[in-house]
Design a protein that fits this description.
Number of domains: 1
CATH superfamily: HORMA domain
Order of helices and strands: HHEEHEEHEEE
Strand order of the largest sheet: 5-3-4-7-6
Number of helices: 4
CATH class: Alpha Beta
Radius of gyration: 18 Å
Shape: globular
Length: 209
């Protein structure tokens, strides 16, 4: 077997890429909710992933909500039609948006995979270990944002916004929402990761104090 054939044999599939990105979204959103104190510290449990100790919610209601959203996001990742996932953090008292975490998704729409799983063209290949290393760097940056983001000293809630290509069917239980931008915000771009099928860029916008 040639080196190129060996690489293609171990290439990340569309399903594999989708699973990686959806799993990252789950850990990323949980990390944001923990770091920003949106839920009580005691409602999180520790898990090992990407060579890190991550905090994941044990709240049944929150888990059910995240599962519903990310299940639909996985469908759109598979069809290469999702554009971004946004985490909105806003004050319960004033409804003012304080932070806007944005995960931009670039889908390689030239990716073609037949029913038999044969790739139509040779592709640049990245190992799952390399991808997980990139994700580890993103998660670490999310954790480190507490060093520069303003202290949240009011009760807050969060919402998830999902942007897709036009003319995509949306679950009937989901509502329409505006972009909920922050006027005169400060923005910080974080690292990105790339499965070679989905590329995810991360940034946070916040209301300066």
């Amino acid at each position: 077997m040639t080196a190129a054939a060996q690489d293609q044999k171990h290439a990340i599939t569309l399903k594999g890429s989708t699973d990686i990105v959806a799993e990252f979204f789950n850990y990323g959103v949980n990390s944001i909710l923990y770091q920003r104190g949106i839920y009580p510290e005691e409602s999180f449990t520790r898990q090992q992933k990407y060579g890190l100790t991550l905090l994941v919610t044990s709240d049944d209601k929150l888990n059910a909500y995240l599962s519903e959203v990310l299940t639909q996001v996985k469908h759109w990742l598979t069809s290469l039609t999702v554009q971004k996932l946004v985490v909105i953090i806003k004050s319960v008292e004033t409804n003012e948006v304080l932070e806007r975490w944005q995960f931009n998704v670039q889908c390689d729409k030239s990716y073609v995979e037949s029913k038999e799983g044969d790739r139509s063209t040779a592709r640049k290949v990245k190992s799952e270990k390399e991808i997980n290393g990139e994700i580890k760097a993103v998660i670490r940056q999310i954790t480190a944002t507490v060093t520069f983001l303003p202290l949240i000293d009011t009760a807050c809630e969060f919402d998830l916004l999902v942007y897709t290509d036009k003319d995509i069917d949306v679950p009937s239980t989901w509502g329409e929402s505006g972009p909920q931008f922050i006027a005169n915000s400060e923005e910080v771009k974080l690292r990105s990761f790339n499965t070679m099928i989905h590329k995810v860029d991360t940034m946070v916008a916040y209301k300066p104090q």
